[in-house]
């Protein structure tokens, strides 16, 4: 466990490179499954994966996949449901139970391993794009490292995914710095590397999510961190801009123009996604009670692709049951983050930031059972709950020692 789980966390962001050919299974998934089986056969998994909100979380997952099951059966398209339902069960039930069973120290190593994995991915991607052209990278390395328009996918394999893992990595990095688990000079270097990858991915959603998440952690946890880490990193970025350092053209086109003009239609594929959202909204009236079933939206849509808005997608594919299930999952995450803030402010704020990033991406993506989307926030929540559990065990021990000393 001490070896396999941190390795799995390292490869959590290396989706495309660490993925089995033509399968939605990665090296990370295999390692997590091995760890889950090992713990299940030795001592059992922890069913209280979300603290006080565990029941709400489990009910939300059941409603989410249950609504899609009803729709699949009603439309005679059952074969796809075991795949989608199994992916959601693995990602939202088995993984959090596995993580919550682990110790705080092991989860802390997993968090650092994730940061190092993301930073390594960005270093490789930036080095390749800085030294080789697109054709050479595509021919000899991987066609997913960089897109035709110059956006960095790195080892994640897709620019928007790369922006997401960079954002989650920044949260873990701040958490480690605040808790003195990494030297700040190393953290500043890792932060600059991750930010470079984030900029090169040219993802408006990623930049927006990263900005919101970092501000949440800095403002709500420790303002002292602004002076010791955030300001030096900001000064380095400012100096780079003032000295007219090169900025990827894709970033200027997809992110910079939208920020400077305040026009969201300039942000990436905003217009195209709006068309799909309008179609999904119009279709929802016919699918409220019984949805289209798993992947039914893709078959029904005139555009032949799922809407990039998770709430509308599950509403159409699973009806109101799946929609309520997804909402219950999100409420459980939010409420648990608030509860954790009252017990350990830093852990709770980082969970809140992780939830904010996950929520932002649910508004701009289809199904999110891929572990690179939900694995990082689940690791944040498991880390926070493990800290509370460890504290709860230390306090009674101290009380017993006090009574032993004062006893006659």
UniProtKB/TrEMBL annotation:
InterPro entries: O-antigen_ligase-rel_domated, WaaL-like. It is a multi-pass membrane protein. It is found in: Membrane. Keywords: Membrane, Transmembrane, Transmembrane helix. Coiled coil: none annotated. Residues 190-326 form the O-antigen ligase-related domain. The chain crosses the membrane at residues 23-42, 54-73, 79-99, 111-132, 161-178, 190-219, 225-243, 320-340, 346-363. The keyword Nuclease does not apply. It holds the Pfam family Wzy_C. This is O-antigen ligase-related domain-containing protein. It comes from Novosphingobium panipatense. The lineage of its organism: Bacteria, Pseudomonadati, Pseudomonadota, Alphaproteobacteria, Sphingomonadales.
């Amino acid at each position: 466990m001490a070896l396999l789980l941190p390795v799995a966390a390292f490869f959590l962001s290396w989706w495309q490179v660490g993925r089995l050919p033509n399968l939605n299974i990665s090296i990370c998934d295999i390692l997590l499954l091995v760890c889950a089986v090992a713990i299940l056969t030795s001592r059992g998994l922890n069913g209280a994966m979300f603290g006080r909100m565990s029941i709400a979380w489990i009910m939300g997952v059941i409603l989410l996949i249950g609504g899609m099951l009803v729709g699949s059966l009603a439309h005679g398209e059952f074969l796809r449901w075991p795949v989608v339902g199994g992916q959601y069960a693995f990602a939202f039930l088995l993984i959090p139970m596995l993580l919550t069973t682990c110790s705080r120290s092991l989860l802390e190593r997993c968090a650092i391993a994730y940061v190092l994995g993301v930073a390594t991915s960005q270093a490789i991607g930036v080095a390749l794009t800085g030294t080789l052209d697109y054709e050479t990278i595509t021919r000899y390395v991987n066609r997913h490292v960089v897109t035709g328009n110059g956006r960095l996918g790195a080892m994640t394999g897709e620019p928007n995914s790369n922006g997401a893992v960079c954002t989650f990595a920044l949260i873990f990095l701040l958490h480690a710095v605040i808790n003195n688990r990494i030297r700040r000079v190393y953290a500043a270097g890792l932060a600059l590397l991750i930010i470079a990858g984030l900029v090169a991915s040219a993802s408006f959603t990623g930049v927006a999510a990263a900005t919101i998440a970092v501000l949440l952690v800095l403002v709500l946890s420790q303002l002292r961190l602004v002076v010791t880490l955030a300001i030096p990193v900001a000064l380095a970025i400012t100096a780079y801009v003032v000295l007219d350092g090169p900025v990827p053209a894709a970033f200027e086109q997809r992110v910079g123009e939208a920020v400077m003009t305040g026009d969201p239609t300039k942000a990436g594929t905003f217009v195209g996604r709006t068309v799909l959202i309008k179609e999904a909204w119009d279709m929802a009236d016919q699918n409220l009670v019984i949805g289209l079933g798993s992947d039914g939206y893709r078959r029904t849509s005139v555009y032949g692709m799922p809407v990039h808005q998770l709430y509308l997608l599950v509403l159409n594919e699973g009806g109101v049951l799946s929609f309520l299930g997804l909402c219950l999952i999100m409420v459980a995450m939010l409420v648990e983050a608030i509860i954790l803030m009252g017990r350990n402010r830093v852990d709770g704020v980082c969970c809140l930031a992780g939830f904010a990033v996950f929520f932002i991406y649910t508004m701009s993506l289809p199904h999110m059972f891929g572990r690179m989307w939900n694995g990082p926030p689940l690791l944040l929540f498991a880390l926070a709950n493990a800290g509370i559990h460890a504290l709860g065990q230390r306090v009674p021990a101290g009380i017993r020692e006090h009574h032993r000393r004062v006893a006659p």
